[in-house]
Fold these 3 entries.
Entry 1:
Amino acid sequence: MAKPVPSRPRRTVLYVPGSNARALAKAENLPVDCVILDLEDSVIPEAKAEARVQALGALSSGRFGTKETGVRINAVTTEWWLDDVTAAVRAKPDALLIPKVSSIGDLQIVAQRLVDVSADQSIRVWAMMETPLAMLYAREIAAAAKDAETRLTCFVMGTNDLARETRTKILPRRNAMRLWLMTCIAAARAYGLGILDGVFTDIGDSDGFARECAEARDIGFDGKTVIHPSQIDTCNAAFSLTAEDVAQAHEIIATFQKPENADKAIIMVRGRMVDRLQAEFARRTLALAEATPNRSLPAMETVI
């Protein structure tokens, strides 16, 4: 069984067009956990080179502070991706987001490029799951994480591209693509990856966005990608741990730490059977709560 994914909050992950200087400047102070500087879908072909310089200049300046940062490069089938990777690694984002991943081969191509340009080992790779082949090969793509050279640590759903390529309508509750979402979640968890939900494009439908955030949380996503600042507060709220979550995690760990439970694999907590695997997830919960910005939760004195 895979270990739990790393304890870094990714409740709200904001795409910022690399060609939009105003949006890049505004993103500095927005309360998101991660910013993805986009060189792909939001940038027209004629602006690719300029967007690359502008976005990676902003990243190199350190203006995003402690936020996790990613750069979405262009797909490996395009003429721009090699220059994207070369420039991006100099700016040292936390991750490169690879669009249109449809096979392990796509990740291996990127991995070799990262070796060729001597990319810092701290730079991770995230894979966008947005093609029919990605759905068919989700397990194999996730399993690529076993090869350290791929640097793979996270899946990001590209639900709009997936809908277009499969001719599936995105309706309330996304029943038509629920199977694919759950398949990718299962694959990610089987190999210890994080996973983020796709964007919600109807900016004016705040109720629909809140509903989709709650549904994404309940089926297992770590957080959601967003495209507009108006979506941030709702998304943060949906994916934030509650005081009840944290208190329950404290109680599970404290109960296992009692001398009389030292040799027990399963204990009772408030009438519920709890095993030691759940204790590990409780520790992750506390670490995640501790790492979450602007939290107002109980103190974390007994995380370990």
Note: Confidence is low (pLDDT under 50) at residues 296-304.
Entry 2:
Amino acid sequence: MANNKLTDLNNHLFAQLERLSDEAITDTDLEKEMIRSKAINSIAKSIIDNARTTLEGMKFITTDHPRKDPVPDQFRLNQESTS
């Protein structure tokens, strides 16, 4: 299983920006990179939305969740998710 982090996504996005900014890129390669950029952008938005949802859930658990109710599994922290 991949251990990607949001910092990795940030690095991928900046690398793609650098490829698009390459002054020496041919028109054909630029078109390919633009298609790739659209795909990367779409996936990045999904990853960011997922991270935002998780963050909002964690905020709820730590501030608004009634302590007597069990924490839903998707918001439980374990050793693997914190490393």
Note: Residues 6-77 form one domain.
Entry 3:
Amino acid sequence: MLVVGGGGREHALLWKLAQSPRVGKLYAAPGNGGTGALAENVPLAVDDFDGLVAFAAAEGIHLTVVGPDDPLAAGIVDRFEAADLRVFGPTAAAAQLESSKVYSKRLMDAAGVPTARYETFDSKPPALEHLEGRALPVVVKASGLALGKGVFVCHTLEQARDAVEAIMGERVFGAAGSEVVIEDYLVGPEISLHALCDGSTYTMLPSAQDHKPAGDGDEGPNTGGMGTIVPVPWLDGDDLRRLGETVVAPALAQQAATGSPFAGLLYPGLILTSASPRVLEFNARWGDPETQSYVRLLDSDLLDLLDACVDGRLAGTPVRWQPGYAACVIVASGGYPGECRKGLPISGLDAAEACEDVVVFHSATAIDAGRHVTAGGRVLGVSATGKTLESALDKAYGAVERIAFDGMRYRTDIGRRPWPEPATVALPAS
């Protein structure tokens, strides 16, 4: 098997796939300083489609699993399928649910999926003019892929103008800023849904909650995610089922109706307002760092599930989960999500992994002179499981405290937000 990507999500997928009795050899392209313990790292970039297709064909790869969003948006699945190679992930047309927020919003309208009131713009002047009459606060989003950083919550008109200028004028996110979405600011707890899909049917994974802002108390700039918990304690199985019927089912039906059925992992991010659940965004791949928590509780063979999605037989494939909770705390470099120093030696990894029920997933590490060093912003994902959420968190944070490198930082409040009162959120009726 081949897993495309080099982050914590890919390390977690490899970790779970390695437990399958059907898996013989694992490859990671390009992998990282941690994946080499499970798989052979192959020096192929995620956008080297020619190289990846040739490698999969030459090695007789049973299934390629694509982790990151960029290659999905650029059509890696289409290239593999054209070469008659089995691959897990949506086509480029289906991945527009994530790669274009404008496309996603319009699909939600057509499918009747609840979302925030919005307007879209493909040039700067009308976007700025629209802001003049907009109630504040407001959310300004780059339409394309921006590593989770293209969303600005603006409480003043000046902030909103600056966001439009950064996205469409300065093009800080490159081509992702060719269009913007300006939408209402919504209030309520956020949750992540994940659903395995085979183009026509879906299976819900437990609910998850990510923590996007860089600092404690949800302060600071948005990141790719600073930590997750699975499941969300105040949502039950009926809530999850109804959310799937409200969000996932109509989106899948609409994708199929457009001629681009979605097969892969569909990951909507929701906010539960006091009026109704609203979709903030759709993602077309496994969440990062949600995956690092999911694999710790998944009791089924992951390869069986991925094969079922690719082969269109998900409806007859059971999914089993271990009881309890999983948590993942991201250990990041100083300066993240901005510029970060690389090549800093990391100590304490063995001590952390020796902790009870702890697995450390590598997100941005490399091997230098036989030791692990930092190689980016989100360096490690320290995961733990427990019978209660608090015990999982205590184990994860206990392991984090054994790790050290210059400038290391992490949030201390993952999973410790106050739980919402029932009257403050609305869920779909049964």
Note: DSSP finds 13 helices and 23 strands in the chain.
